[in-house]
Design a protein that fits this description.
Layout (H helix, E strand, L loop, with lengths): L3 H4 L2 E6 L6 E5 L10 E6 L4 E8 L1
Antiparallel strand pairs: 1-2, 1-4, 3-4
Length: 55
């Protein structure tokens, strides 16, 4: 059985707006093997933008 760290690693989501804003979250590698893209709020530009997984 895989450890929790290997199955659900901590990832950093960086804003595509170029502001440098980041979110930290966990993801399930079995369900989402590719890079994660989530639409979240960027407080520096006060809009919702895509945040992409950074490695």
């Amino acid at each position: 059985m895989a450890k929790n760290n290997e199955l659900r690693p901590i990832i950093k989501l960086r804003s595509t707006a170029g502001t440098g804003t980041t979110y930290v979250t966990r993801k399930n590698r079995r369900n989402n093997p590719d890079r994660l893209v989530i639409r979240k709020y960027d407080s520096r530009i006060r809009q919702h933008v895509d945040f992409r997984e950074e490695r």
